[in-house]
Amino acid sequence: MSTSTEVQRDTRFFGHPRGLANLFGVEMWERFSFYGMLGILPIYLYYQVDQGGLGLAQETALGIVGAYGGLVYLSAVIGAWVADRLLGSERTLFYSAVLIMIGHISLALLPGLTGIGVGLVCVAVGSGGLKSNATAIIGTLYADGDERRDAGFTIFYMGINLGGFVGPLLTGLAQSEVGFHLGFGLAAVGMALGLTQYAVGRKNLGDKAREVPNPLPSSHRALAVGGALLLVAAILVLVMTGVVTPGNLADVVVVVVGVISVIYFLVILTSRKITSDERSRVFSFIPMFIASAVFFSLYQQQFTVVAAYTDQRLNRSLFGWELPVPWVASINPVFIIVFAPLLAALWTKLGERQPSTPMKFVLGTVLMGVAFLLFLPMVGSGKNASPMLVLVGILFVFTIAELCLSPVGLSLSTKLAPEAFRTQMVALNYLSVSFGTAMSGKLAEYYSVDDEAPYFSTVGGVAIGVGVLLFLGIPFIRKLMKGVH
């Protein structure tokens, strides 16, 4: 009996394979460190030096945060390719976790923009590699038709949100009581714990997790390594010569991801390996790709505009104690933990009567726009005067919008994928998230606490407009989807 078969029959972790515990743990600690770091990153960048920050202009700081998030999702595409062609998912995940830990240590120990540059690149590339491969490995723990599979992914999903909840609470407390570098240090410790427990239990994952599904021919490997080194060298030259700067990083990431996305679509649509029905389905994905990018350009502002709003406009006083700014980042994971099972149960109960996938995209995009319009009643209320409960309500709308669109996006990309381009279609879904996240940084450059109404009304109104256009196009889109619901 192969080790993969033994793994799939294993029931030692609450009736699931023991390997699920390892993946649950490494993902929980990775999300702890990722969201913990992201909670304090924007204020670290724009707080003045005497407050422990770097003193960057706020628009530059928020642009960097958005660009960094965009690079994480772009790296997920790269991580999937490395796993498929070079190392296999298990080894790619392990090396990615090591890279994340190095990144957090750099943020904690290296001073100024050097620490930011080294740290964010390592964390972005590592998080992308871990994100794309943890899910793939979970799939190998279960045999085809195993009824435990959905429950296994649900347990894994809870690990993500548990880490996302606790991370900002602890790093935020460390930052407010001691300083930023202790906060970044806690993120490093969390990742070290996750990496340690994963390394100890790697043997529980079986042979299938280590397979390289589509190995790159040995004659092409030198070319791949050479290309990667050339790319790194080109990026270093662009940074050192001042072509790419902190101020224009968000613009660069938006353009790069946009160009890559267009190339991906063209490669798939012009391929002779796909049928006319498959080509039609790829065309149907284009408006959903646009809606997803618009959605995430607003949703990911939790870590740009909403972070600045929390710092400068929100009344965080609670019984005479001021809540740390990053604590607001823990609200969304709580709502997800509570409401994700309820919404999933609702879709299941509705069965064939539930909204179609394009309609769910409409709901997600429109609700996201509405969430931004809900900031308008608080415009002009003064410095740190907006009520906490109102922001909690707005983040609840963020969460319901997310649950309408985000989980179905990945599923849709697999349903519409041509047989010859399954991985690439999943990559396209990640690219829509990458583009939107980078845009969340670019848009944040136009936000000002002194003149909020034009920003919130424009951004919210555009998202609602995109949702309405998508709604009007549903009959045409469903025709292109050729029977996919």
TrEMBL record:
<feature type="transmembrane region" description="Helical">
    <location>
        <begin position="61"/>
        <end position="81"/>
    </location>
</feature>
<dbReference type="Pfam" id="PF00854">
    <property type="entry name" value="PTR2"/>
</dbReference>
<feature type="domain" description="Major facilitator superfamily (MFS) profile">
    <location>
        <begin position="1"/>
        <end position="478"/>
    </location>
</feature>
<feature type="transmembrane region" description="Helical">
    <location>
        <begin position="426"/>
        <end position="443"/>
    </location>
</feature>
<dbReference type="GO" id="GO:0006857">
    <property type="term" value="P:oligopeptide transport"/>
</dbReference>
<keyword id="KW-0812">Transmembrane</keyword>
<feature type="transmembrane region" description="Helical">
    <location>
        <begin position="32"/>
        <end position="49"/>
    </location>
</feature>
<feature type="transmembrane region" description="Helical">
    <location>
        <begin position="282"/>
        <end position="299"/>
    </location>
</feature>
<comment type="similarity">
    <text>Belongs to the major facilitator superfamily. Proton-dependent oligopeptide transporter (POT/PTR) (TC 2.A.17) family.</text>
</comment>
<keyword id="KW-1003">Cell membrane</keyword>
<feature type="transmembrane region" description="Helical">
    <location>
        <begin position="249"/>
        <end position="270"/>
    </location>
</feature>
<feature type="transmembrane region" description="Helical">
    <location>
        <begin position="455"/>
        <end position="477"/>
    </location>
</feature>
<feature type="transmembrane region" description="Helical">
    <location>
        <begin position="155"/>
        <end position="174"/>
    </location>
</feature>
<feature type="transmembrane region" description="Helical">
    <location>
        <begin position="327"/>
        <end position="347"/>
    </location>
</feature>
<keyword id="KW-0813">Transport</keyword>
<feature type="transmembrane region" description="Helical">
    <location>
        <begin position="222"/>
        <end position="243"/>
    </location>
</feature>
<dbReference type="InterPro" id="IPR000109">
    <property type="entry name" value="POT_fam"/>
</dbReference>
<keyword id="KW-0472">Membrane</keyword>
<dbReference type="InterPro" id="IPR005279">
    <property type="entry name" value="Dipep/tripep_permease"/>
</dbReference>
<feature type="transmembrane region" description="Helical">
    <location>
        <begin position="359"/>
        <end position="379"/>
    </location>
</feature>
<dbReference type="InterPro" id="IPR018456">
    <property type="entry name" value="PTR2_symporter_CS"/>
</dbReference>
<feature type="transmembrane region" description="Helical">
    <location>
        <begin position="180"/>
        <end position="201"/>
    </location>
</feature>
<feature type="transmembrane region" description="Helical">
    <location>
        <begin position="93"/>
        <end position="110"/>
    </location>
</feature>
<dbReference type="GO" id="GO:0005886">
    <property type="term" value="C:plasma membrane"/>
</dbReference>
<dbReference type="InterPro" id="IPR036259">
    <property type="entry name" value="MFS_trans_sf"/>
</dbReference>
<dbReference type="InterPro" id="IPR020846">
    <property type="entry name" value="MFS_dom"/>
</dbReference>
<keyword id="KW-1133">Transmembrane helix</keyword>
<dbReference type="GO" id="GO:1904680">
    <property type="term" value="F:peptide transmembrane transporter activity"/>
</dbReference>
<feature type="transmembrane region" description="Helical">
    <location>
        <begin position="385"/>
        <end position="405"/>
    </location>
</feature>
<protein>
    <submittedName>
        <fullName>Proton-dependent oligopeptide transporter, POT family</fullName>
    </submittedName>
</protein>
<dbReference type="InterPro" id="IPR050171">
    <property type="entry name" value="MFS_Transporters"/>
</dbReference>
